[in-house]
Amino acid sequence: MLPFIQAAFKAWELPVSLTASILLMALLYLRGWFRLRVTLLNVIPAWRVNSFLLGLFLIWVAVGSPLAAFDEAWLTVHMMQHLLLMTIAPPLILLGSPLMPILHGLPKRFVQTVLGPIFRFRSAQRLWRAVTQPAFCWLAAAAALVGWHIPAAFTLGLRSEAWHVVEHVCFLVTGLLFWWPVIQPWPSVARWSRWSMLLYLFLATLPCDILSGFLVFCERVVYPVYFSTSPPSGLSVLEDQQCAGALMWTCITIVYFVVGTIFITQLLSSGNSRERELVRPGGRVITLPAAEPLDLEIAQ
């Protein structure tokens, strides 16, 4: 094993609170999923469960595994974290249709007495509709991506543990928002053409391409904070920066191309019709057009 990898494992400490939170979320999801299978058979297929759990695991890899020990010395690793939190883990989580299993995994009384009134509150529904609009989701993701890569903000995140956590949460939340209109998990409403999502994805590549191209072709170090720690790989700080930009460029291009190809294939083969399975009291499942946001009902 290379010396710098050995050093990273020695310096790494298991983040107990993060690990416990991810495990709790996984257990809630699985508890709800097993409850659904008892009464509703295969309402959520096993591949969606695996997708959700893989998404949670990648979040832990990004910020809780020994990989995180390199982010203050290696810009390429820092970029890996950003890509995992914003581009890869969120769509995997949303593909797991997380809201229905988690709601069924929570205590029934808590859902009925606490979450139910909140979901039925008109202001909460209006806010939900606003923040899940494609324009808002796109702008939020672009602002987080560009804003946290401004040198001053980037340096603040590296030097302050609290701001580092805020940075990671910001990437994850805006990543979930960005992918919500694309995947439209239950109980989202299709208020826009599915073909428009191809344009949505194309426009999303623009800030990524500009930022990654700048990092690759810039002839100076954009983040001087890395001068204080040499990259453990033997690369110079500038070469590490170019590698990080190339990684971002390649990953974003591949992910968006794959998603766009899947979109085109599905739209050409089945048109624009999408249906949802809605859980009703008594354990019945009826197939309807997409439900209104936050209009959630838990099987009795």
Describe this protein's structure.
With 300 residues, the protein is mostly helical. The protein has helices at 3-11, 16-40, 46-63, 75-95, 99-105, 108-120, 122-131, 134-148, 151-159, 161-183, 196-217, 237-270; strands at 276-279, 285-288. It has one domain (3-288). 69% of the residues lie in helices and 3% in strands. Helix 2 packs antiparallel against helix 3, helix 2 (16-40) packs across helix 5 and helix 11 (196-217) runs antiparallel to helix 12 (237-270). The model is unreliable at 272-300 (pLDDT under 50).
What features would you highlight for this structure?
300 residues, mainly alpha, two-stranded antiparallel sheet, 12 helices, 69% helix, disordered C terminus
The major β-sheet equals: 2 strands, antiparallel
Radius of gyration, taken over Cα atoms and rounded to an integer in Å: 21 Å
Number of domains in the coordinates? Answer: 1
- Separation of termini? 55 Å
Order of helices and strands: HHHHHHHHHHHHEE
Strand elements, count: 2
Give me the side-by-side strand order of the main sheet: 1-2
Helical percent range? 55-70%
User: Rough shape?
Assistant: globular
User: Spans with pLDDT under 50 lasting ≥5 residues?
Assistant: 272-300
Mean pLDDT: 84
Beta-strand share of residues: under 5%
Number of helices: 12
Question: What is the oligomeric state here?
Answer: single chain
Computed structural class? mainly alpha
